[in-house]
Design goal:
six-stranded mixed beta sheet; alpha+beta; globular
Length: 220
């Protein structure tokens, strides 16, 4: 299975949401108690950078000098080589967990500060998408996943629908739909076999093509 960059954005956004320290403190996160542990493939490094500079192909729409609590924003490496390095903190959660603030506070109108991301992106690999298709051999390029909001934040269990394009002998072929995947978010994180070089930005988050191995799809 190869994930399109837009699908990768959605999945990595869900992972970042589960790194909210408030959810961790309330034991409502799959990653509670996992700090310093490998939770993903060693190929995956995930970064949130509130100071990211704009560049061609990199809009950095989430860049801000300060977070909602007045702390200067910073670059936070959330996952490094698959290892969970930090949660996303407000001043309150950092104090409760005895950790350094990450300047990750956001605030809606009339609401209390909560952890957020600014510019969320994975570090790219060195393989072009067509190389990933050849590595997949006979599989599916997933261009859309439906129902990701149903992922259980505590267990990581999910059952979602998907559609995409069949990969036949390493080349994109005909469209396919009404696919189903029932499993766990860990499967998407730990079974990463290769990362694409095609980092694309969708607003303040970026994704890239991801090759997954040993993933079973119903209806494929």
């Amino acid at each position: 299975m190869v994930l399109h960059p837009e699908v990768a954005v959605d999945l990595l956004g869900i992972v970042a949401g589960m790194l909210d320290a408030e959810s961790v403190l309330k034991q409502r996160s799959l990653f509670a108690g996992k700090l310093g542990q490998a939770i993903a493939s060693p190929l995956l490094t995930l970064v949130d950078d509130g100071r990211l500079a704009e560049a061609p192909g990199r809009p950095a729409l989430g860049t801000e000098p300060w977070d909602a609590e007045g702390l200067p924003t910073r670059r936070n490496v959330l996952l490094e080589g698959g290892v969970l390095k930090t949660y996303l903190h407000t001043l309150k959660t950092a104090a409760e967990m005895g950790m350094a603030p990450t300047a990750s506070a956001g605030r809606g109108f009339g609401s209390q500060p909560g952890a957020t991301t600014f510019n969320l992106f994975p570090l790219p690999g060195d393989a072009a998408p067509d190389v990933l298709y050849r590595m997949a051999g006979n599989g599916v390029l997933i261009t859309e996943i439906m129902g990701l909001h149903t992922v259980d934040p505590v267990s990581g269990d999910l059952s979602v629908g998907a559609s995409g394009i069949r990969i036949r002998d390493g080349v994109l072929a005909e469209p396919v739909d009404k696919l189903t995947f029932a499993g766990n978010l860990r499967d998407f994180l730990t079974r990463i076999a290769a990362l694409g070089s095609d980092l694309r930005w969708y607003g303040s988050s970026a994704g890239l093509s991801i090759l997954l191995e040993d993933i079973a799809l119903g209806g494929a």
